[in-house]
Every structure is written in structure tokens, then in C-alpha cells.
Amino acid sequence: MKKHILMAIVSTSLLLSGCQSAYYGAMEKVGYHKRDIMVDRVTDAKESQEEAQEQFSSALEEMQALLNHDGGDLEKAYNKAKDEYESSQDAADDVSNRIEKVEDVADALFDEWQTEIGEISKASLRRNSESKLRETKRSYEQLVRTMKRAEGKMAPVLTAMKDNMLYLKHNLNAQAIGAIKGEFASLQTDITGLIKEMNKSIDESTKFIASIEGK
């Protein structure tokens, strides 16, 4: 059986069982180590943030179109904005899930690394490995801080979107739209700030992947 097919089977069966330690052990048996998994998960988290950036920008555009509504089908414009809000919530959930997966494999990798350092008999090699572990941890901690900072900015944006959607749901008319226009400027600022933080996190992800791969 080809390696990538075996890896897919192992990954699916063990992730469904929810046993991460068994998953890591099984993947290692087919030559796929925690370091490899970490690179993949950081890459996935990076991609999910890129997708979330696009989704929040799209939601902002649809809300702007709704607020600038000029007499067409108001219900249709509202539904499009609502769909974009819901997609933004899904994108935010995906980002959070991806970050959790990065944290899980990082804990497993660092625990294993620390344990195996103790098994190195030659002092110079042990010191070198300890130094590399500290360096990787520092880089990882910086990565997680930027990821979490970006993640934290999603919640208030989603809350503001939800407030607007719920308000308009029961007051879908020109007067109600006019009433929330003042909120829109603040929402624009918040989404701009969110995208900026996500860019930082994406850049930090790229740097971390390069460092852990030795590039």
C-alpha cells in the first residue's frame, strides 16, 4: 500500500477516535513525525486565516451593499449579507480549530523532544539539542501569540455583525438601515484591524515553517 494512502487511512481512523497520542504514534510508524505534522498544521492554520480574511472582506462588502441599498429587492440584499455573516462565523470557527490543533501537536512535540534530550549521552550534543529546543519554543510562542491576537479580534467583529443582522431581521426598511449606518464605520475599522492582525499571523506562520524546516 502506498505511503500517502496508508497515512490517510491512519489519519482518518485515529482522528475519528479522538485519540491524538495514538494518532501521533501510528503516523510515526509510517515515517510521519510530530515535526512534520506540526508543519502541516501551521500551514493549515495559515491557510484558514487567509480564507477568513477573504470571507470577512466579502461580508463587509455585502453589508456595505445593503446599507447603500437604492430601492431594489431589500430582502435579497439582506439575505446575501446574512449569508456572508454566517460564512464568516464558520471561517472563524475553522481558524480556532486549526490553532487548537497546532497547540496540541506542539505540546506533544516539545514533550517528546525534552524527554529524548535526556537520552543523549554526549554532553555537547545534548546542549546543542537543548539550545535548538529553546529556540524553537521561542519561535513557536511568538507564533501562537500572533495567532491568538488575530483570533481574539474576530469575536467582536462577529458580535457586531450579528447585532446588525438581528436588528434588521425585524426592522427591514430604509429607516432601520439608516439607523445602523453609524455602526458601520466602526465595523469597517474593526475588520481592517482584524485583517492587519491576520497578516501578521500569516507572516509569522511563514517564518516559523521556514525555521522548523531549516530553510
TrEMBL record:
<dbReference type="InterPro" id="IPR021342">
    <property type="entry name" value="DUF2959"/>
</dbReference>
<feature type="signal peptide">
    <location>
        <begin position="1"/>
        <end position="22"/>
    </location>
</feature>
<dbReference type="Pfam" id="PF11172">
    <property type="entry name" value="DUF2959"/>
</dbReference>
<protein>
    <recommendedName>
        <fullName>DUF2959 domain-containing protein</fullName>
    </recommendedName>
</protein>
<dbReference type="InterPro" id="IPR043473">
    <property type="entry name" value="S2_sf_CoV"/>
</dbReference>
<keyword id="KW-0175">Coiled coil</keyword>
<keyword id="KW-0732">Signal</keyword>
<feature type="coiled-coil region">
    <location>
        <begin position="42"/>
        <end position="153"/>
    </location>
</feature>
